[in-house]
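User: Could you write out the 3D structure of this protein bound to NAP? I've included everything you need below.
Assistant: Certainly. Input first, then the structure.
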Amino acid sequence: MLIDGRKIAAELGAELTGRIGALGHRPGLAIVVATGDESTAWYVRSLLRTAEKLGIAARRVDLPHDSDAGTIRGALAQAAADPGTHGVICQTPLPHGLTLPDVAAVIPPELDVDGANPVSLGLLAAGVAGAFAPATAAAVLKILDHEGVELTGRRAVVIGRSNVVGKPAALMLLARHATVTVCHSRTPDLAAVAREADVLVAAVGRPKLVTAGYVKPGAVVVDVGTNATPDGGLVGDVDTAAVEQVAAAITPVPGGVGPVTTMVLMHNVVTVAERGR
Ligand code: NAP
């Protein structure tokens, strides 16, 4: 069974429209961009479109593509200081090999709607209620919950250990009482480990790495990977056609995790506004 991420996103969007209407004002989202990367630009345009449809005032803060850490931190702090802002996110890749943790510590955790501040990851690890997880990791859990996938006591395997997807997804699965294994590029016999999973999350960035031999019959597979193809398309980390024959359910790429991620981000912005910044 293919899990329809667009349908889940539409349901979340309908719920958000009602919540935004009840607020009586437009929540604000600031998107700081210091890159000319084409796929980032595509993603930002899609965020702006979704925000507009929902009634969220999203604005793009463009910085020179050679900005240093101080400049990016300054822009993030300035955006956060604006009382009309209910969420601040910073797009990657960053110039000069900078990483998100190099700059995102200036985003106050209460406005850190994409869980980029290392403090947010710490709060998530510590199980502090109300902390924001990175939207992609939260989208993985949102999809599993929407599909009614039982997590307590089940074996979950996450392939990938980045701060934005693999690590927070593993922490969230752990918080939901799954028994979690995290794999990475140095995991020997990845296929054998993956085959232990009742719930398999692939967040790698390698086209079709996960083949049918990686999947236990009846497992649920969430494909986070987004890999550009030479013809301008997108494929995931999972060989969907082959794995579909084995898995109970699988998220497609495109149309799986991506649209849900966007709505989780918007949900987080609305949550900040509801908390009364
Ligand atoms: P990342 O920072 O590059 O991390 C990739 C992880 O995969 C690393 O932990 C790496 O291991 C591991 N890995 C690489 N090759 C491997 C292999 N052959 N076997 C096992 N593990 C391997 O990437 P990311 O930011 O987490 O993103 C992962 C994927 O998700 C990408 O395709 C990205 O485009 C996509 N993504 C999608 C969304 C969405 O909304 N749908 C959002 C964010 C990201 P090491 O740690 O050992 O290097």
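The two ends are 41 Å apart (CA to CA).
User: Perfect, thank you.
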